[in-house]
Every structure is written in C-alpha cells, then in structure tokens.
Design goal:
The complex is a heterotrimer of chains A (528), B (177) and C (430).
Chain A: E1 3-6, E2 9-12, H1 19-26, E3 49-52, E4 59-60, E5 70-73, H2 77-91, H3 108-116, E6 134-135, E7 140-142, H4 152-159, E8 166-169, E9 176-179, H5 191-196, E10 202-204, E11 217-222, E12 231-237, E13 240-246, H6 259-262, E14 271-276, E15 283-288, E16 294-298, E17 301-305, H7 307-319, E18 326-330, H8 336-349, E19 355-357, H9 381-390, E20 407-411, H10 422-428, E21 434-439, H11 444-447, E22 452-457, E23 466-469, E24 475-478, H12 491-498, H13 503-506, H14 520-524
Parallel strand pairs in A: 1-5, 18-19, 18-20, 20-21, 21-22
Antiparallel strand pairs in A: 1-2, 3-4, 3-5, 6-7, 7-10, 8-9, 11-12, 12-13, 14-15, 16-17, 16-22, 23-24
Helix pairs in contact in A: 2-3, 8-9, 8-12
Chain B: H1 17-36, E1 61-63, H2 78-82, E2 88-94, E3 102-110, H3 119-123, E4 129-131, E5 146-147, H4 149-152
Antiparallel strand pairs in B: 1-4, 2-3, 3-5
Chain C: H1 19-24, H2 29-35, H3 39-49, H4 61-66, E1 76-81, H5 90-97, H6 99-113, E2 117-122, H7 127-142, E3 158-163, H8 173-180, E4 204-208, H9 209-228, E5 237-244, E6 250-255, E7 258-259, H10 260-267, E8 277-281, E9 290-291, H11 292-297, E10 299-300, H12 302-307, E11 316-321, H13 326-340, H14 346-363, H15 369-382, H16 390-404, H17 406-415, H18 425-429
Parallel strand pairs in C: 1-2, 1-4, 2-3, 5-11
Antiparallel strand pairs in C: 5-6, 7-10, 8-9, 8-11
Helix pairs in contact in C: 2-6, 2-9, 3-6, 3-9, 5-6, 5-7, 6-9, 13-14, 13-16, 14-15, 14-16, 15-16
The chains are: A alpha+beta (528), B alpha+beta (177), C alpha/beta (430).
Chain lengths: 528, 177, 430
C-alpha cells in the first residue's frame, strides 16, 4: 500500500495503482481522452501529463505506477503548458463544426478547451480532410474528421465485446477509424462506443440530431430491459425521454449496457416521433404510443373517461364480487412495492389460487449473452417470485382460458416488445365477462376483446419509484424520472384507490419541467 | 431618509363646458388645416399608406436560402437556445448530401410568443435567420401564428422585393448591404 | 589512428558471404568457443566490454541482456535489421557481404541469453539482403550451426527471417515487435520493456545487426583488447555510413572517438573541389545538425556528440556543403517524418503534419516570419511527449536547422526563394 502525494494531498493507494487512478481516487481533476477505467492503457492522447518530483521529464499518469513517497502534481505551469499544447495538437485537424456537432455540450475537447485552452490558434495551415458521415452499422455513424484517434472504441470492440469490428487504418495524420469490409459494427453493445467517444466522431443514429444535449436533463434510473437491471442515466426534457446511457455500477453492469436496453425509453414516451419521406418532403410524423386516457369498451363502443372515474367503477364492481370471482394476471415487469400492495390486497380480498403469472418465453430465461443481456426480459421476475412466496401464492403460469371468472384484472407488461404472445393471451380472455387492464401502452389486442374491457393507463417505471430485484438478487431502488402521462396510476395507487382513498390523495406527480438554464451568453450581453 | 412633499391637486370649482368647446375648437382648427394641406399632416392613412421602417427594423423572421434554393439553416438549434421566449422549434434530419451534416425538416416560430429581441439572428452562425421588415401578423386563431418554413423562407416578394435579403451565399455573408 | 578493419576485415572477399569462405576466415570458431563457455560469462564479457547498441540509442548491450527476468519463460532474440533511418546503409552491407557474421553473432548472443528462437526483422526494401541471408541460414542449418543440439552442446536454436513491409516506425523495437506479432506496426507503451514483456508478451532482446556481429569480436579478442579501441565510455569500432557532398561516400569502420573532420578529410577524400563545409548531420536525419565549426571540433563518440546536443545515432554521416539549401533539406526531412509517423500519439501524429505543412508553405513562398517561431514551438512541444522517439526524431532536426541556419529561413520567407540557389523549390521542380 504505497503512499503518495498528489497536488499536495496525501493518499494511500493499492499496489499497482497508476497515478491517474490515484487522481480519480482523490477526485482531483486530470485531463485525459484515451484512458478509460474499464479499458487497457493506450497512452496516446498524452494529455494526462504530470510532474513527478525528481523526474525532469513530464510523465503520463495513465501508465505510471504509484511508488512509495511519490510526489505528483499537475498544476505547475510546465504541466499546464504541456496540456495546452497537447490539446492544441488535438485541435489542429479537428473541424470547427461544434454548432452542428451532436457532441457539443458534452464534448471532451470543449471541456478541456475551456479549462486549458482559450488561446489564439497558431495553426494557419489547411486542415486534413477526411470522410464525413460514415455509416458504421445499424446504429452508429462515424465522422472521421472529428475523431481524435484515442482508440477507445477500437479497444472496446477488442477487449469487451471481443468482436474486433473496428480498427485504425492508415498512419500518421491520415489515420482513420473504420470497419473491415463486410463486417459492420452491429454487435449488441455497439452504442457503448458512442458513449466512450470523447468527441463527436461516433454518434448514435437513434439520438443523432434529435435534441441538443443542453436541452436535456439527466436522472439516474435502472434499465427494465432484462433481468440484469443495468444502472442507467435517463436523459429527458418536457417532451419526454430522449436517450438512455449506462451509469457506472460495479455490482451490476460496470460501465456498459446493451443496445437492446437503450430502446426501452421508447415505451415511456407519450408520442412516438418519426421522420418520413425523402429529402424535400421529409416530415415529422407523431403517433401516440402511450395510453393517455382510461377507456371503457363494450360491444364495439369506446367511452373515454377520467382515470379517477374509471377507478371508482372498478372499486364498485369489485365490491360486489367474492372469492373465486376475480383473477389477477401479473408479469415480472412491476416493482416490488407494487407486487406487495397488489398481492397483499388480492390475497386478503380474493383467493390466492387465482393469481396467474404471465410469462414470456420462460424457456429462454436461462440464456445469457456473456456480457450483460439475459434471456429473461423482465426486470423483476425474481421480485415477483419472492412476493409469491411471501403471500404463499403458488406460481402458476397463465396458459388456460379465464372464462370461469367474472372479472379478470390484468397488469399488462410495459416492455411489449419482449412479449410476442400478447395476441395469444388476448385470445385467452375472449370468453370473459369483464376485463380490467392496467397498461402503459395502447395494447391493441386487448382493445378488441368481446368482453367488457376497461383499460386504465399505468405508470411506466420511469414515472414511479420502486425496487427491482435482478437475476442474482441485487436490489436496485430507483426514483421517478419524470411524469409523461398525467392520468396514469401506478399499481400501488390503484390498490390504494380500491382500498377507499381518492385518487387525488394518492396520485403522485413527478413533473420535472425543464427550467431554462440561465443563458450566460445572453446575460453577459448587457455588460458589453 | 429623504422626504418628498406630495402636492395634492385642489379641485377647482368651475364650469367644464367652456373648456370642452375650447378643446373642440382646437381639434376643428387642425382638421381644417390638415384637409387644406395634406403634406404637413403628421399621421398616416393606415392601412392604405404604410410606414417605411429602416432596414434595421426587427420584424418577422426571414429564413435565408442559398442560390440553389436549399435553406441555409443547419439546424444547430443555437437560435432556439438563445431564444428567451422559447418560441423556436426545430426538427433536424440527415441530409442526402454527404457534405451537409443536417438540415431542418421543420422550423417553427410561434409568433405570439416571440418578443422580437433578435437574439436568434445574432446567435445564428450561418446567417440563416434574419429579422425582416414585416410586422403585421394577422391570423384567425392561434395555429395561424405558428410560422413554418414555408412562411419563413422563400420570401423574395417581401417589401415589394426591395430591401430584404432572403438569398445569401457563403461569400456574400459579410457584405454590408 | 585511422580506419580499423575489425568487422569489415574480409568484406572485400566475395566468397565471404558463403559458408566455406566464411569458415576459411576462421568463421564460426567463436561460436564453438562460446558454446563451451557458461552463458553468464558471455553476458559478463559483453557487459565488461562496454559495447553499446549500434542501432541509434547507444544503450549498453550487456546491461540490456541482464534485464531479462529469471522466471523460466521462453525468451526471444530479435535482430533489428529494419535499417530505416535515412542515409544509413551499414547493416545492408553487413548482411549482403557477411551474412554468416551476423548469424554467428546471433547464435552466440542467443546462447548467452539462452533463447531458443530468434528472428531477423529485415527491411522489405532489402530484397537482395533477404536472399543472401536466407541462403546463409540454410547453409548454417546444414552445417549444424542452427537447429537442434548445435555442435553437440545441447543448445538448440532456430532462426527465421521476417521481412517488413516498409515502415520507418518498425525500426523502433516495440514497433518491430508489434509488426512481428502481425499487428499494425505501432510502438507499445513502456513499461513493460521488451526485456520483460516483448514478443508475444515473453522476454525479448532486440539488438541491431552491427551490435550482434560485434559480440564475435569481443569473444575473439577479449574484453581488454576490444576496449583498446574507442574511448572509455564508447569502446570498440563502429561503421559509419558517410554520404553527401564528399568525394568518396561509403561505409567506413573507425574506432569510436575518431575525429569527424578526419573522417571527412582523410577517409572520404574531403569535399568536392571548391566547396566549403556548411553542416554535418552526424547520426541519421533524426540527429540534430552540426554547423561546420562544430563538425570540425566533433569526435565520433556518444559523449562528445551528446555534449554538442546532437547524437551519434545509427552512425550515418551526411555531409552538407555550401551548395545546399537548408530550407529544402528540412523540407525533405519533415516530409519524411510526416509520412512515417504511425499516428498513435497525438503530438507526433499532428505535429509532424504541422511541421511539414509549415515548411512546405515556406518552400512554396507563402511563409511568414511568424512561421519560424511556430516551427520551433511546435517541435519543442513534440519533444519527449510520445511513446517512442519518432516525435523527437522529427522535432530535433527542426530545433537544430532553424536556430542554426535562421538567416537562410528568414531570407527564404522574405524573398520567396532560396538564398543558396536563388530560385524557389517550386521553380526548381517545374
């Protein structure tokens, strides 16, 4: 356990720790592009220069191991000058297209320039021109001019996914990132390369051009794409959620998440925005994807109503039923708290034998892609099974028709893409008398049942707080990100209303209107 | 602490009718004068006559286009960022031309929200938006005031084709017109 | 003390490149002697002899060998025959004229470091040398100097040739190892050094052709006799490739510490008639240039040239007379390093391009006086900031050419033409 001094602060580190890790341990600022804690050391950006007492030459912090009694600093004028020049070398061939670059606002070059740069450029020569807008695969675009060749993405495909799609071609300042012929970057973790790219060279086709990042706010959450439950940061504004990025969590996902999980946010958004048509006639198409109003359907007629009114109806209906009349269908997509209130209410009021577990392809549940994605595409199957145990309910898969019940209460899955059997399950309900469905999405197969149907908007997981138990029992609590559909209720609130409370008293809003950030540029104008 | 002495106006006890007639007499005199000599009249016969504002007038926005007819805007959304009234909405998309990064497929300005501060014009790095001479913005309902690309760009006829620059080429950007 | 023929003693003999001719000149005798010695003794001898690497950096060879970890891992010996340094051609002659000398030196060295496998990484352009070496290795296998149980000593060794694809950076030892591993020829981060983790992450020794061949003569003459040549800190003889404006350019073997002036005046026959010495590059283009005054004082050893802020490098001496334009020369050098930078580290990747663009602009007549300072500043900040020494190699010529011949650069920028030739580079070529 060597001790060292970093910028005047004493720190004790583990054996084999590099200087840059010691800096991170102390939360000291140090500039770096190529170094990433989860990847091997490349040592090519030459920005993490530090001065080590007794060594006349500056050393890179990422490849120098801390030794006992080392005195390191990175705030001397010599280091600052070296970093400034290192940055200048990065910038001389970097195009000045920040206004149209998607990374602007979260760009490593911009950050460092504001800290170390702010100089008049000395480069008077022409910049090297390279390929713009290179299609790397289904989800990633590359701009080779913006690339600073830190090789993070190359090392990612080499070391993490071990798929080796990317490589650096050519040499000198003609070097370019590229894929090999016939081998596009299509692995299920390709979007991580976009996250680790410190500049705007790699961009996600899904997020590209949709929003400027300074319009977005981020909040921590958990991915509900599979039973791994990666920790994520959700980027949203008042229009909805725009993207999801992995958040470092050593216990679950490390630094990464899969591309499948990044699409889950689309289930949360009220409106699905799409661009259609060719150039000149391109148009923004918006389609409603969430259920935004409670709807009562009978004999082909739909009646839209307020959620509170719909809940009143359900309450009066349920009050007239006794044990054995009502069935409950649940999936592994709800939170532990919701299971507790739902199953607690149901086992108390009705029979524990009438709880059915809607399972999507359980034969796939054991599958694992070796990195993060698991075959069980429910975030909380383990939590559900635990709740079943707690309320001594026998877990029975939902396979038979439920026509013997007077009312079937279905808590529909949120991630409908993981449930290919929705139409089949809807068919199992066709002879029922009355069906109450709590659903986030429109869930069309359930809308055309012959039975009397009441669809009630359900809160998506980003709108409520709760807990998911992942495949190996790691408990992850998450708090709401934002409110997208005001009329939606969580299952907890639903049960509370059934218990006699009014909706207004129990429904929680997490409206998070984006406050306009005070625009420095505008406010400084008055003094000019 | 300074003290101000407030003067309370005294109500004067007098007839008001003579005052009215004096006032009306002045009005009548001016009416005769204006009818006799229209040139010295200080007001305009709006809407038949319209006032010519200076070229620096900040009226409704104009989106400039290139000579080939493509809109200059690169959808960088800096105008939307600078906008204090939050009235600009842009949807960007990929361009088929590989030399162009992106372009706006929809560019909407809510004229009812706009405060005509001109920050969008100043924020624009490519001179794609300018404040034009037009200032009358009639409409039947709220939707009429959300101007899209069709209403903002391609405005060659504005101001009878004079004084409005709606076509800007790169090399002409810094020319003083 | 004039030219000493130690390595190059029999180079004039054409039969020397065949195994019979080589053996007739007491070839492979030292190998037989070495195989009877304990390996550690050879290492000690090389260490005591003070032999320094002839490739450029001048690192003591015996010291390098003693860095090998004693963990029983397989060891590799690599011979660096990727003679990429512009103006260097000594290894080429050695491989073409005396391939067995190299092979013998390599087997002795391999025995000393107990390596079972060695590779000769040879430059792709040296087609003839490849042929000669291949032939020689075949012969050595047939004669039992290579292969299993060499000469009944119980030591086995295999040797292979790997032909490079033509990159200057593969002459850097870790770049060479990357290339040999089948990767892109890019230097690797140090530490770990190749002696600890090199080829295939195994301990690896990389030595220059001349260094390996010199080992034979240390064994033959003994440490004391070898140290008689050269200076205290730079013992032995060295091959110098002299090129440029001299009457007799070529390879000359002289003891280290020899006077540069004497080498030019006596061995190379002096400058061409009526010309004045202007500058000398003493160690390949990456070495800082010496002015005529400095060149007259300089002795050819590592210390003297280091004192003059230059270096002995690979020992290729470029003699420049007063008919050469220094701006054009720097243009050639910066272009070379721009072309050869591997593109891994940012200061080198962008800096070499920047230097080349600025010098090109000056050559095209578009330079400004500010460019001179820019050149120095950029070069100064490229120095010592990268994984390998290519960045330094590109920066040092600039940092010596520009201050030492500043007036020529200023004239070129001011007048748009060369002070020496009176026309610009563009006029000269079109």
């Amino acid at each position: 356990m060597p001790k060292c001094t970093i910028n005047g602060k004493q720190v004790e580190v583990k054996d084999g720790t590099t200087i840059i890790q010691a800096f991170k341990q102390l939360n000291e600022e140090i500039a770096h592009y190529c170094w990433h804690p989860a990847l091997s050391i490349a040592g090519v950006c030459r920005l993490c220069m530090v001065e080590i007492a007794g060594n006349p030459r500056l050393q890179i912090a990422c490849n120098t191991t801390v030794t006992e009694g080392m005195v390191v600093s990175n705030n001397s004028p010599m280091v600052k000058d070296a970093v400034r020049w290192g940055l200048d070398f990065h910038l001389i061939n970097h195009p000045l297209d920040c206004p149209i670059c998607d990374q602007a606002g979260e760009c490593g070059l911009q950050d460092q320039y504001m800290k170390f740069g702010m100089y008049d450029p000395e480069m008077a020569e022409k910049k090297v021109n390279k390929r713009k807008a290179v299609d790397l695969g289904e989800r990633v675009m590359l701009d080779t001019e913006r690339c600073i060749l830190c090789s993070r993405c190359v090392r990612f495909t080499e070391e993490i996914t071990k798929t080796n799609e990317l490589g650096i071609f050519n040499r000198g300042d003609r070097s370019e990132i590229g894929t090999f012929k016939d081998k596009p970057l299509n692995n299920n973790y390709s979007l991580n390369t976009v996250d680790i790219c410190p500049v705007g060279a790699l961009t996600s086709k899904d997020f590209r051009f949709k929003q400027r990042v300074w319009f977005l706010k981020d909040k921590p959450s958990v991915c509900n794409g599979c039973s791994t439950g990666c920790s994520v940061d959700v980027y949203f504004n008042k229009e909805g959620v725009w993207r999801v990025k992995p958040r470092h969590n050593e216990a679950v996902n490390g630094y990464w998440m899969c591309d499948t999980g990044r699409n889950i946010y689309k289930n949360v958004n009220r409106v699905h925005t799409d661009v259609e048509g060719e150039r000149g006639e391109k148009q923004v198409k918006r389609s409603i994807s969430r259920l935004v109003q409670a709807v009562h359907r009978m004999n082909g007629q739909s009646e839209y109503m307020q959620t509170s009114f719909a809940l009143e109806q359900v309450r009066t209906q349920l009050a007239s039923f006794k044990k054995g009349d009502v069935a409950l269908v649940v999936t592994g997509q709800q939170t532990v708290e919701e299971y507790n209130s739902l199953l607690g209410y149901f086992t108390k009021t009705f029979s524990a034998d009438d709880v059915y577990h809607w399972q999507n392809n359980p034969q796939m549940w054991g599958e694992f892609d070796g990195l993060l994605l698991r075959g069980d595409r429910n975030p909380n199957t383990r939590g559900l099974l635990k709740a079943f145990d707690q309320y001594s309910i026998k877990s029975q898969p939902w396979t038979q028709e439920l026509s013997k019940y007077k009312l079937v209460l279905v808590i529909a899955p949120e991630n409908i893409a993981a449930y290919p059997d929705i139409a089949e399950k809807a068919a199992l309900l066709k002879n029922c008398k009355s069906v109450v469905v709590l659903t986030t999405s429109q869930l069309t197969p359930f809308a055309n049942l012959s039975a009397e149907t009441l669809q009630i908007p359900l809160k998506s997981y980003m709108e409520k707080s709760g807990t998911f138990l992942n495949y190996n029992g790691v408990e992850q609590k998450f708090s709401p990100v934002t409110t997208v559909v005001e009329s939606a209720v969580s299952a907890e609130e639903f049960v509370a209303v059934l218990g006699g409370q009014t909706l207004a008293a129990v429904q929680k809003f997490y409206a998070n209107p984006i406050e306009r950030v005070e625009n420095q540029f505008i406010h400084q104008r008055g003094e000019m | 602490m300074s003290v101000y002495k407030v003067r309370v106006p005294q109500q004067e006890k007098s007839w008001y009718l003579p005052g009215i007639f004096i006032g009306l007499g002045f009005t009548f005199k001016k009416m005769i004068q204006n009818l006799a000599n229209k040139k010295q009249m200080p007001t305009l016969n709006y809407p038949e006559e319209k006032y010519q504002y200076s070229p620096r007038f900040k009226g409704n926005h104009v989106l400039t286009v290139k000579k080939d007819g493509k809109i200059r805007c690169t959808a960088c959304m800096l105008c939307a960022t600078a906008c204090p009234a939050d009235c600009i909405t842009i949807h960007a998309s990929e361009d088929n031309d590989p030399t162009v990064e992106k372009y706006p497929i929809s560019y909407e300005i809510d004229m009812l929200r706009c405060v005509f501060c001109g920050f969008c014009e100043e924020a624009c790095p490519v001179d794609a938006i300018r404040m034009g001479p037009e200032w009358q913005t009639p409409g039947w309902n709220g939707e009429n005031f959300v101007y899209d690309i069709k209403q903002l760009a391609y405005r060659n006829n504005l101001n009878s084709g004079k004084g409005v620059v709606s076509v800007v080429e790169d090399k002409d950007r810094h020319k003083i017109i | 003390m004039a030219e000493v023929k130690m390595l190059t003693e029999h180079y004039a003999d054409d039969s020397y490149c065949g195994i019979e001719g080589y053996q007739a000149k007491k070839g492979y005798e030292m190998l037989k002697k070495a195989l009877k010695m304990p390996p550690a003794e050879i290492v000690t001898m090389v260490k005591d002899s003070g032999l320094r690497g002839r490739g450029g950096a001048g690192f003591p060879t015996g010291m390098k060998w003693s860095f090998l970890p004693n963990n029983g891992e397989e060891r590799y010996l690599l011979c660096n025959a990727d003679e990429g340094e512009p103006c260097t051609f000594k290894d080429r002659m050695m491989m073409e004229r005396a391939p067995h000398q190299l092979i013998e030196g390599m087997i002795i060295s391999a025995f000393a470091v107990q390596s079972k496998k060695s590779y000769i990484y040879i430059r792709g352009e040296y087609q003839f040398a490849v042929k000669v070496l291949e032939q020689a290795i075949q012969e050595a296998y047939k004669a039992g100097y290579l292969g299993q149980n060499i000469l009944g000593s119980g030591f086995s060794h295999d040797m292979d040739i790997y032909v490079g694809a033509g990159a200057y950076i593969c002459g850097e030892e870790t770049g060479m190892i990357s290339s040999l591993e089948g990767l892109k020829g890019q230097p690797k981060l140090k530490p770990p050094f190749p002696a600890v983790k090199g080829y295939l992450r195994k301990p690896t020794i990389v030595n220059n052709v001349e260094t390996l061949a010199s080992v034979i003569y240390i064994l033959r003459d003994g440490v004391e006799a070898y140290r008689k040549f050269g200076t205290q800190k730079s013992p032995g003889t060295k091959l110098f490739s002299v090129s440029g404006d001299v009457m007799k350019p070529g390879n000359y073997e002289v003891p280290l510490g020899y006077k540069l002036k004497d080498l030019i005046e006596i061995e190379c026959g002096g400058l061409k008639l009526g010309r004045q010495l202007k500058a000398v590059i003493p160690g390949g283009t990456s070495a800082p240039v010496l002015t005529a005054e400095e060149a007259n004082r300089a002795t050819l050893d590592y210390e003297c040239l280091a004192d003059m802020k230059s270096m002995l490098g690979s020992g290729s001496i470029v003699v420049i007379d007063d008919s050469r334009c220094m701006v054009d020369m720097l243009g050639v050098i910066t272009h070379f390093y721009h072309h050869e930078s591997c593109g891994q580290c940012t200061p080198c990747r962008e800096g070499t391009g920047w230097l080349n663009k600025v010098v090109s602009a000056i050559k095209a007549g578009n330079g400004t006086q500010k460019d001179i300072d820019t050149l120095c500043k950029v070069a100064d900040n490229m120095k010592g900031r990268t994984i390998c020494a290519l960045s330094d190699a590109a920066a040092l010529p600039v940092l010596s050419f520009v201050p030492k011949f500043r007036s020529e650069f200023e004239y070129y920028i001011r007048e748009g033409k060369s002070q020496v030739r009176g026309i610009s580079y563009a006029q000269m070529h079109h």
